[in-house]
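Our consortium's second objective concerns turning raw sequence data into structural hypotheses that experimental partners can test. To show how far this objective has progressed, the report includes one record in full. It was chosen at random from the queue rather than selected for favorable results. The single chain below, 841 residues long, was entered without modification.
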Amino acid sequence: MRRALLLLTICSALHGQDLEKIFEEDNLEPMHRVLAAGRYDDVALICERAIRQGFKSPDWRIMRIQALMNLGREVEARDEVQLAVKTFPGHLELLMLQHDNARRIGRKDIADEALKAVNDAARAQQPKNRTAADWVALGQAALALGADAKKVIQQYFQVAQKKDAKFEPAYLAEGHLALSKDDAARAADVFRAGLKACGETAELRVGLALAFANGDREKSLESLKRALELNPVHSVALLNQAESMIGAEKFLDAAGLVQKVLEYRDNCPEAWALLAAITHLSAADVKKFESARANGLKRWDKNPEVDHTIGRVLSRAYRFAEGSKHQRKALEFDPNYLPAKVALTHDLLRLGEEDEAWKLAAEIREKDGYNVQAHNIGLLEKEMAGFTTQSFDDFILKMPKRDWPIYGEEALALLREAKTVLTAKYGLDLKRPVMVEFFGQQQDFAIRTFGSLGGQGLLGVCFGTVITMNSPGGLAHGRNNWQSTLWHEFCHVVTLTLTQNKMPRWLSEGISVHEESQRNPIWGMPMDATFRRMILEEKAAKPISQLSSAFLNAESDDHLMFAYYQSSQVVGYLLERFGPEKFQAILRDLAGGKRINEAIADNTESLEKLEPAFEKHLQAKAVAFGEKADWKKPEPEDVNPLDPESLAEFTKKHPDSLWAIHRQIDMLIEQEKWADVLPLAERLIALVPEDFSGEGGYQIKANALRESKRDDEEIAVLRQIAEHETSAMPIFLRLIELDQKKQDWSRVRTNAERALALNPFLRTPQQAMADAADALGEKDRSIAAYRRVLILDPDGAAMTHFRLAKLLREADATQAKKHLLDCLTLAPRFREGLAMLREWP
């Protein structure tokens, strides 16, 4: 900066063309770099001096106007740009700066005049003479006039990129247009191309961060960090960091970032909007909230971005009703403000107001054919039009038509049980029906739940009185228990409703996981080897006061699962130490507006005492898991795992080493020495009797017994595993197979139930359930199961029809005969069927 100021002084002594040439050629590009570094005051001052000294390039005025706008001096910028467009009539970039400035201060008249001037200038200009900046300005004007976004990209922004491959604004214009249409994938590609062509810039890095914001959070944060290294006062980067802090409930940190923006841009509407949202979420202070909102509207009292931003942040905190109110306020200011329309559409879906949401999405599509979210919602609406809807006083269930006869009645019964148990337990009078929607395709679940593709690994989500779930016959079928997931999500209905959605994520998730284990001891999340390692070795446990960040900042899937586990352990600990009355008082205080740490301290003890006490409790649980075992892994110099003698010597010195036992077992399995595997498996069981996972001794022992053809002993071990593992589908199916041979129908039924809780669309456990219920004289249950088998196994329908005919003959002769005739239609020579028909009265 000193160099630039010095040049101004030196150049004042030069004359005419020499002065202009030296200054403009040597200093315009450095001044662009100063602007890009966020030194807005310096840029505004130097450019003002350059203009006063008569330098003719419009770039001095453009940079000064941009600097003033970045400083929040929009009124001053308005006067500057008015003078600039008179000085440089028909200059497209200056005219669009005038348009943008006018929109910021709510001067539609000036904005419209600028667009008219752009149109007039474009007509007078030969396309071949246009610069890259001209093409970008014309594209932006076309968008403001309602042109098709995809055509603007092709006919303007991409033309600008071809005209000058290193012209950064061309990439920024296309990338941000894609973002405005929720096309994050395209935006990311464009910003990456811009970085490749133009090098590292804060603007391109911020664009890339926004493109990754809802998909790859780690990459998004990395790009924001890089942007702030390049420009430490970049307002968009700082405010996006603040939003991340709000999501982690680090409200003081978020407010600090917002204040950093307000220090140099004290009328920034987006910053005041975030501050209003922080105040509302952290303190529920109405006066401070209204004051911050009013400050956001000072520059333009009908700026829709202020309420849209507040609403977006509130909805991300699961305050959808409040968020939707602010989106409606934004639309009162500007009925065509697209971001508010899109956000309101999602709020309405999450509030269960689907009819209004479909209409609003259709309205967006009609006016904007490129908006990806509105397009996806349209596809979702078409898909859900084919769903079956089962409406009751207490629940509304929506699912693909094939799903209802398979598990619909069971889902309804489980929901009613959950409602009876949990509403009574937490003292909730649930006044409206709960909507539960199941999706056969993961992409439909993602669009309905998140508004875009993604969310892989999530099984269900609750928004209050709306639950969305992947169908148990869809993604991850056979690996996750859909019944425990449904119970978990309904628990969210209770706690979110009870607290008016004013509870941190960790507490809501912790209660739901805890209540799973109360319903069924093998549901929920017990201590395992991974959690033990994370507690004792990695020190991954968070202080209670920081648990929300464990979800937002999870480093891996293991860390996310550990956040669920630790949250459930905190809930269990609070209930055990202080009792249900104190615990429910915490929830009541949250509903009344208290922050979580204050509510916990007021009803239990200070966090200074509580946090170390809980940490000690959690560590004790981790130590108790496999406490007899040696969990240490040896150093490379201690043992050669590929050398049997070295391994044997190490094992002799460390007989309780889990690592050594597993290495020995691996070698023996490779050699198929099953008799030698068995004592080692027994050793694992003795050392870690709580471990029923695939790495535990029980499953290794069962496999060895199976390979040794010792069926009775295998069955005994498998039964132990089945009683402790909720997702052991191969074991459930194996037990069904073995128990059917023994005609142990009670146990067949038990394991069929376990398998169907993972995937009710599997024919084998449905058939086993039908046969077992029939053998046990449970006629109604058998009939229901055989009807499901008819749907799942049309190839074996003849025999299923025959069994249904037998079961229904006494209670419903008409239906029984229909099934019999269907049987004989498929198998006309079936003797038992013909004999039954001859006996029919």
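The partners drew two points from this record. Residues 417 and 487 are 9 Å apart (CA to CA). The mean pLDDT is 91. Both points have been shared with the crystallography group to help prioritize constructs.
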